[in-house]
Design goal:
- The protein is an all-alpha fold.
- The chain has one domain: MFS general substrate transporter like domains (Growth Hormone, Chain: A).
- Helix content is 80%, strand content 0%.
- The longest helix has 33 residues.
- It is globular, with a radius of gyration of 21 Å.
- About 3% of the residues have low confidence.
Length: 422
């Protein structure tokens, strides 16, 4: 009986991992890995792509809030499956290489499909899976597994693109690049649809799991209760600062192309390489957090991310210095992924009740994920108006400033936890 229970538990976290990354492959992972190609085949500037991300973030802002309340009332199974199905449909529209106006509509649509039904449900399901003593491991496995899935899908995508693209990459026509990239998009869409089916049929497929969760508290009362918790306010700043770092990992493949002078396939391979750092860091940090306090490792993450950002901001990392480029990338990515692993794993350390997890996650996310609105346009503006190394330096200086803000917020959050436990 115990073995069956353990097997079922492992199956649940695997499904959460697959769903947790498959839903974001289309809107985020493909532009991150293939950024130079993505800009080329859709004929976009950095600023225009940033505008698409901004529209996504604006729609996601309301979706975080109301989606969090829904996650406290309904089972994750149908919410997550529905999100994956709807997101996959958006990929079919993307594969037609629409105009900028239609592309903006697609990103607004994804802001709803990937957040409203999905985000709060995934975080709450992971917190329940981790129990009271394994929150670090739960979120470490989730985030690490998502990183492995993203890297694997990215590697397959790069392979598909390189096989279909003519051998002479530099002279390939726009239509040839689009044809090759269309197969990558369709692959990602098909994967999201398949994972949605797996979730629908195999995740918590019991009558109890499908039944709405009854609660005597109204959504408004839950919101008021969450706002009274001091740790929530510091977590908002922690997630905000950490997410700026995560959004700026989009720049590494572009940096490889523009500054390190790699070709499109090698630049995409750099984007995939950084994703393989994620599972290693996330699992190790998650396990370490269970043996100490998660907030201490968040402090560590911000300090490391700040160090990596400052190296890039100096402008020392240039063509020919490949070792320094990859070392600086690893440092920055390690800090970024360490924080991302744990900022929802410390909900228990912050004394946030399990019953209102969805609402708390929704409110924290409303502030914490606002970089979806402003980072893309700012990064695009800096890169387009200061071509070459200068624009990249400015972007990494912005990362350094937010790293410092996050470091301060995480120290205050950690001290708050010590005071509560004393």
């Amino acid at each position: 009986m115990q073995q069956k229970k353990s097997t079922a538990s492992i199956a649940q976290i695997i499904l959460l991992i697959l769903a947790g990354e498959s839903v974001f492959i289309l809107p985020f992972v493909l532009p991150r890995i293939f950024r130079p190609t993505f800009l080329d085949v859709f004929e976009l500037t950095n600023f225009q792509l940033g505008g698409c991300f901004s529209i996504y973030g604006t729609v996601a802002l309301l979706s975080y809030l109301y989606g969090g309340a829904i996650a406290d009332k309904f089972s994750p199974r149908k919410l997550i499956a529905g999100s994956l199905f709807l997101t996959a449909l958006g990929g079919l529209a993307l594969s037609t290489f629409p105009s900028i106006n239609t592309l903006q509509l697609i990103y607004g649509y994804w802001g709803f499909t990937t957040i409203f039904l999905f985000w709060g449900a995934m975080i709450k399901a992971t917190r329940v899976w981790g129990g009271t003593t394994k929150q670090g491991s739960a979120f470490g496995f989730l985030e690490g597994g998502r990183g492995f899935v993203a890297a694997t899908i990215g590697a397959i995508g790069v392979y598909i693109f390189s096989v279909i693209l003519p051998s002479n990459i530099a002279t390939a026509m726009l239509v040839e690049r689009q044809d090759a990239f269309r197969y990558v998009i369709l692959f990602a869409s098909g994967l999201a649809f398949i994972v949605g089916g797996l979730v629908f049929f195999f995740m918590d497929n019991s009558e109890k799991a499908d039944a709405p969760i009854n609660t005597s508290d109204s959504s408004l009362k839950n919101i008021k209760e969450v706002f009274k918790i001091p740790s929530v306010w510091w977590l908002m700043l922690i997630v905000l600062s950490a997410y700026v770092g995560y959004k700026l990992t989009d720049i590494f493949s572009l940096y490889a192309s523009e500054i390190m002078l790699f070709d499109e396939v090698k630049a995409a391979q750099v984007g995939t390489f950084q994703l393989y750092i994620r599972p290693i860091v996330c699992v190790v940090i998650g396990l370490l957090a269970d043996k100490s306090r998660g907030s201490l490792w968040i402090i560590f993450g911000f300090a490391v991310m700040l160090s990596g950002a400052l190296i890039f901001a100096t402008g020392l990392v240039q063509s020919g210095l490949n070792f320094l480029f990859f070392l600086s990338l690893i440092i920055t990515a390690t800090g970024t992924y360490a924080i991302r692993t744990l900022y929802f794993a410390v909900l228990q350390e912050g004394k946030i009740p399990l019953a209102i997890t969805g609402t708390a996650v929704g409110l924290i996310s409303v502030v914490g994920y606002t970089p979806d609105i402003f980072v893309g346009p700012i990064m695009g503006y800096l890169l387009d108006n200061s071509p070459g190394i200068v624009g990249h330096q400015q972007v990494f200086m912005m990362l350094a400033l937010f790293s410092a803000l996050g470091l301060i917020a995480s120290i205050r959050f950690s001290r708050l936890g010590v005071l509560k436990n004393s």
